[in-house]
Amino acid sequence: MDGRCIICSISLDRGSGGEDFFLEEEWWKRHVLDFPGWLWIDARELENRFLTRGKHFWSNLYRLIIYDPIIQRHRVTGVGHHPGIIGDRLLPRWYYAAARDINQAVIGIPEETDPELITVVNSRLSWWWAGEEPKRDWHTLALAMHMHCWTMARRIIGPKVESEYLRPATALVLRKAREREVAARRAREMGCQDQEEWQRSSTTYEEPLKIMSMKKLIEAHHTRSANSTLPSSTQSMLPYEIRCIILDYLDHQTLHSLLRAVNCPLDDSYWRSRMSFYLIGMEEVVKEAEQQHQLNWQALCLETEQLDATTDVFRIRHRVVDSLTDIKAQLDRGISVSLPNVLNHIQDEMVGEYWEGYAGHILCGLSGTKPAMMQCLVNAGFLTEAQSILYQQYASNPSPKNFDLFSET
Questions:
Q1: Is 99 helix (H, G, I), strand (E, B) or coil?
Q2: What's the CA gap between 201 and 197, in Å, rounded?
Q3: Closest listed residue to residue 10, CA positions, set 1, 20, 19
Q4: I need a surface site. Which of 115, 123, 236, 295 has the fewest CB within 10 A?
Q5: pTM above 0.70?
Q6: Calpha distance 331→74 (Å, rounded)
Q7: Taking the CB of residue 183, how many other CB atoms lie within 10 A of it?
Q8: Dihedral of CA 342/137/123/189: which sign?
């Protein structure tokens, strides 16, 4: 199983046709496809790009949260890339490699022995999502985030998320991600959710930050409507701030109908504020557009809200922003959660879920449970040490005699 982003819960996909990624920039192509097969660049340069050639490229780029024994605390790595295959070079599925320096990014398939890399085994990233991984020392576990999901975290929670807020914020994000996974799994089991949603999200929906559809909308709205000849609304008699509050309760369809019927002048600042959610990550696009022409903020806002209401373009952004906004509110209230405690608690939960799913098979000697997981079940009190030893004897030699001994326990 691929690693999972703890912020949006979508997998860190191996890029199909990974070579296409490097066509985003001509000099990337020369360095990566010919020699040496990878390229080091500034992380901010990569973060600020709109990736135009593949909707799924965003999910191939990630950062890791690891425990660094040198500084004896958790920290964020630089950016890593999961392209899948480049030429005749295949990226091993079992590991993820990110730049050691938080300000650096590596794209392509670098040498595994490069000292500037931090390499993590796949099972150390997907452990919280699903599977049969035994409980490990929390120091050895890593957590993954899409590059742009982490950028959103910096924007919404603030720069402290990289330092003093890192551990409590990570604990809260991970706990929320775990709750989302459990809820989704139960819904699927009951037939209440699209079985393929989690698998198709990264290729079906646009990324959370640099959304191309939003960029195109901004670039297209450069004409302003002529002065209105419609009758004035009675709302115009109210103080401006009160009018804005009332209009905030109207959806785009109702507001559009109102503006077609009556003259209700509003400053550009209202429309910009109303659509602030959609403008995250679009600052440079807006700046460039305004240098060339005057934006029609009213039309832009209403069309953007219509796009949101009728498509899934902003689906991942809503998931990420809602989650991070809630976590920021908890941090602002002084709520602090121990990351080691959350890491251990989730692993304990998963051991319990494993027992619930396989207890019948284990007690019949048929599950194929690995010794490390058997020991976890013993430590959690689900099995006795004697049962574990007899099970392993039966698993290595499934004779009728050993089965009788195991069954008697």
A1: strand
A2: 6
A3: 1
A4: 115
A5: yes
A6: 18
A7: 11
A8: negative
